[in-house]
Amino acid sequence: MTTATIFSVCAALLVGVGAFGLVARAHLLRRLVAFNVIGSGVFLMFGGLGDRLPQSGADPVSQAFVITGIVVALAATALAIALIIRLFEETGRATLPGEDEADDPGTD
Predict the structure, then answer these.
(1) Alpha carbon separation from 59 to 34, 46, 76 (Å, rounded)
(2) Percent of the chain's residues with pLDDT above 70
(3) Does the reported pTM lie above 0.70?
(4) How confident is the model at residue 107 (pLDDT cuts 50, 70, 90)?
(5) Beta bridge pairs of residue 57
(6) Under 8 Å CB-to-CB from 24, ≥6 apart: which residues?
(7) For position 77, what pLDDT does the model report?
(8) CATH code, 3-103
């Protein structure tokens, strides 16, 4: 089993878990975390498959793209958290209108 295969399988697992969390949860912070897990899987795949030639090391261009993507994802996450906080202050709920918190299997 090659390193690229291991990275690809782990990335696919992260994307799958994140997609399940994105669909199955009603709470917006949980959806945001699930979306970030999906992004982490994508970054792992791009970073792991960035080797052009094993003897020369990783490709610096793909590493630069992954680092730039991580920075953009961090900024988007900060914006999403600010919007969720604003929604909670206005409505008192951290779910979108029309979604019932009782339908969320993760709440107690």
Answers:
(1) 28, 11, 26
(2) 87
(3) yes
(4) low
(5) 53
(6) 104, 105, 106
(7) 96
(8) 1.10.287.3510
